[in-house]
Amino acid sequence: MDSERIEKIIEEYGLQKFRANQMKDAIFNKSVSSYDEISTLKKDLREKLKVEQPLLCLEEHKIFKSSDKRTYKALLKLEDGRIIESVLMSPKPDHWTACISSQVGCAMACTFCATGTMGLLRNLSSEEISDQVLFWRQFIQKNGIDARLNNVVYMGMGEPFHNKTKVFNSIEELKNPETFNMGSRHISVSTSGLLKPIYEMAERFPQVNLAISLHAANDDLRTGMMPVNKTFPLEKLAEALTFYLDKTNRKIFLEYILLDNENDTLKHADELVDFASKVKPSKLLHVNLIVYNQTDSSHRQASRETATRFKDYLLDKGVSATIRKNLGRDIDGACGQLAVLDQK
Ligand code: SAH
Ligand code: SF4
After folding, report:
1. Is 292's C-beta closer than 6 angstroms to any atom of ligand 1?
2. Closest among 232, 344, 217 to 285, alpha carbons compared
3. Whether residue 83 sits in one domain with residue 175
4. pLDDT of 126-150, one tens digit each?
């Protein structure tokens, strides 16, 4: 359900305009899971809408819960039977973040990522993207979880900028004060580095957070892991990031998975320092060092000691960096573990 669909319902069923506000309040503010709970609408209309206009264009197929109860993963079935994954996680008490998908699969074929092995099956519509957030709002409400959904990150399946129009529309919807009413600063988009949309983000959504999946700071190594680097090499990426920082004056997060004996030596750290120095002003960059979540690939995670040494080296050279906590590993809900291989 989104603002566009509500407008259509109002028109199609010949309802008065104020009904739109009643519906929006019930669906987006109160997070009702059924029309039965929208008591402001007449009973016969509710019965009709129940059959003809489902509240969500995706349905719960399966839910997994991590043993520490801080991560839930949902398999959600779309109207054509395709299945996507969406994750709800609590990085700190009383804070919940939804990690949503933008495509079924992904065309970028990064060697370390489970989603990349699926190939691209299709793009999601704007409503299929924002409905994942609505799904989790309903889930929180239904399960009596005593906290709000604070943040949304586009870090599930798919490359958001490879489905740019739908993703940008869904961000508009999340920001819409009449529906999801989220602040831009609570929304983050992660990209493997498609350049044009980075320029567009800077103009259109300067307050939305941007994360770049970097993972290597020399072109040969990065192209080997991330084929997208062939088309959009590091020098061009640095230019795009400089433009972005100039327009927005916001922080950019550089995601860097530490892979044993591949990108985790101090030489690689030095290359990362060098890349950071090409982006101006470098102080607005923050490196998130990520512990690799094992997938079927031949990559192996770097040791804790290596990660700490890498981080300390960056800090020593004036590049801000932290090692990111991993949530949801026991249910394959962590980064790069999102893949649904048997699509019905
Ligand atoms: N396609 C976008 C967004 C989804 S990926 C992108 O690549 O940025 C979300 C994050 O998980 C990215 O930083 C990605 O590089 C990282 N990731 C992928 N596979 C991973 C793995 N096996 N372990 C840890 N992080 C991984
Ligand atoms: Fe796609 Fe991102 Fe996975 Fe690369 S890391 S294959 S861009 S989802």
Report:
1. yes
2. 217
3. yes
4. 999 999 999 999 999 999 887 889 9
Note the pTM of the prediction, 2 decimals: 0.95
- The whole domain housing 2 covers 1-55
Identify whether the C-beta of residue 77 lies closer than 8 Å to the C-beta of residue 59: yes
What's the CATH code of the domain at 229?
A: 3.20.20.70
C-alpha 336 to ligand 1 mean position (Å): 5
Residue nearest to atom 20 of ligand 1 (CA): 336
Return d(Cα 17, Cα 13) in angstroms, integer.
Answer: 11
The answer as to whether 339 is a domain residue is no
Alpha carbon of 267 to ligand 1 centroid (Å) = 23
Strand 58-65 and strand 71-78: the pairing is antiparallel
Whether residues 227 and 203 share a domain: the answer is: yes
Q: Tens digit of pLDDT for each residue in 166-182?
A: 999 999 999 999 999 99
Q: Are residue 145 and residue 198 in the same domain, yes or no?
A: yes
Q: State the burial class of residue 68 (Cβ atoms within 10 Å of its Cβ: 0-12, 13-18, 19+).
A: exposed
H/E segment holding residue 133: helix 126-142
71 CB under 6 A from ligand 1? no
Euclidean distance between CA atoms 154 and 225, whole angstroms: 21
